[in-house]
Amino acid sequence: MSGIPMNSSVRGAGRKRPFVIGLTGPIASGKSTVAALLQERGALVIDADQVYRSLLHPGSGLWERIVARFGQGVVASGRQIDRAALGQIVFHDPAALADLERMTHPQVVAEVRRLIAATNAEVVVIEAVKLVESGLLDDVDSLWLVTADPEIRLCRLAASRGLSEEEARARLGASLHVAEPDATVDILIENSGDMSLVTRAVADAWDAVVAPAARSNLEPVATAAAKETP
């Protein structure tokens, strides 16, 4: 079943800030599809992965720390971080992944918060695999979880990133895994294939969570699409 309301309460009710949806779920679960549907409804989407990429420019503090920890083997031409090479390390070594996350999460969180503070959008979506683990849960008014069948996620990941089955499975294993909806989840959206069902689920979730907040004057709903590119 899609678009299942898990918790009808609105986090942070009454705050003078945009209404913030935290959109999370395992890698290749289809979060970007849901984010695009929310953007069509007027939400500003902040993709945490794109924020991360924007912080990786050569010579940045984060770039320096990653190279110091993982070596010149993760530096590609033009001094860009070779994310494929970095992935080969961290998705096969839990300790290395933990090190990378300790470096990246605080900076990504700070930049996401800066973008939220700077926007005039009335509804914001933070799209992030590790939204809860990074500490961004405190910044959201409603937490939405996107799930999909593991084998479908495997096929999606391998196809979209040109990975072998072994490589794709390693990345899935290192990704957030939620066997059952956590008590903190407000909306659960199942995204294993049928686009019409996902579209309906997003519409139902918007009506169940965002629209009531607007009607009660907690936060008005955005009326025009907005997009910021980190």
What this model shows, in words?
- By secondary structure, the chain is of the alpha/beta class.
- The protein has a single domain (4-57, 106-215), classed as P-loop containing nucleotide triphosphate hydrolases (Rossmann fold).
- The chain is built from nine helices and six strands; from the N terminus they run E-E-H-E-H-H-H-H-E-H-E-H-H-E-H.
- The protein has helices at 31-40, 48-54, 61-70, 83-90, 94-118, 131-134, 150-161, 165-174, 195-215; strands spanning 4-5, 19-24, 44-47, 123-127, 142-147, 187-190.
- It has a six-stranded mixed sheet with strand order 1-6-5-2-4-3, with helices on both faces.
- Helix 3 (61-70) runs antiparallel to helix 5 (94-118) and helix 7 crosses helix 8.
- The chain is globular, with a radius of gyration of 18 Å.
- The two termini are 34 Å apart.
- Residues 177-181 and 217-230 have low confidence and may be disordered.
**Arrangement of strands in the largest sheet:** 1-6-5-2-4-3
Distance between the termini: 34 Å
- Superfamily (CATH H level) name: P-loop containing nucleotide triphosphate hydrolases
- Biggest sheet: strands, sense, closure? 6 strands, mixed
- Please provide the ordered H/E string of secondary-structure elements: EEHEHHHHEHEHHEH
Rg, rounded, reads 18 Å
Q: Tell me the helix content.
A: 40-55%
Mean pLDDT: 83
What number of domains? 1
Characterize the overall form: globular
